Amino acid sequence: TVAEVQEATAKADIPGGHLELGLGFHGGQRDYDEVPFTRADAEVGDLDDVSNLALGRQTVSGLDVGGRLVWNHTRLGLAYRRSFPELDKDRTGSGLAITRFASHEVRLSLGFEAPTPVAKPFVDLTGDFTTLTLTVDDGQRTARWRSDVFALSAVGGVRVEPAPYTFVQVSGEYGITGPNTWGAQLTVGARFL
To answer: pTM of the predicted model, to two decimals?
Structure first.
């Protein structure tokens, strides 16, 4: 019952705060039109311009793993995210094909959660340090491109503790700056101390 869950959660609370470790799945949309790419390999030639690839808005999905310290209802988090853009590789219009597009992200977050017994609503401000790598092919040669970008997002959601030392969290995000447009995430994990 709800009363039993609340009692167990109260017993699990340690004064001051706790640490969470979680594994999550995220999805959303990114806008890559304004992302500046630079050549990552030494060759120079016809593959020097990727501006006509029209990367645009892309649906992304992926996994993330991270930890969070919750202290007096303040949330401080660090996570690694691996995103996979669902890129239409035929939308170049220039004879170039995209053979690889990878996104690696380190996410820092700072926020607040409400002191409710079971379901805890929260808001976070997140900063993503993202490295994008792009490989294009003109049928004879390949060229690698790289971009290091920063994205700032507002995240809101709810964290539920169905049993002592476990949690499930769902959230949505809205991009403020950078390529992040919108997103959603589901995370499950364990809570310690």
So the answer is: 0.82
